[in-house]
Specification:
The chain contains two helices and four strands; from the N terminus they run E-E-E-E-H-H. With 79 residues, the protein is of the alpha+beta class. It has a four-stranded antiparallel beta sheet with strand order 1-2-3-4, with helices on one face. Strand 1 and strand 2 form a beta hairpin. The longest helix is centred in the last third of the chain and has 17 residues. The relative contact order is 0.20.
């Protein structure tokens, strides 16, 4: 599991990333906003960004959701 940090609601918060290589997916969790998401390896970058952004919009404001989407998609690609 990897732990990253991002600014959410003007505070630095932890984002947890768990990669299951055997079953080919990554779990992303942001406890402060009670949000988690499963990302399958087969998703392309644009689809991932679209899905993440729409899901995060229901938990944060538009600017924060876009910023988190960009960061999370980059972190997932790095894993």
């Amino acid at each position: 599991m990897k732990i990253r940090k991002a600014i959410i609601n003007n505070q630095q918060e932890k984002i947890y990333l768990y990669e299951n290589k055997k079953e080919e997916y990554t779990i992303i969790a942001i406890p402060i906003i009670e949000w988690s998401f499963k990302v399958d390896y087969e998703l392309d970058a644009e689809t991932l960004k679209s899905i993440l952004n729409s899901s995060l919009k229901s938990h944060t404001n538009a600017d924060t959701s876009q910023d988190l989407t960009n960061k999370i998609s980059q972190w997932v690609r790095e894993m």
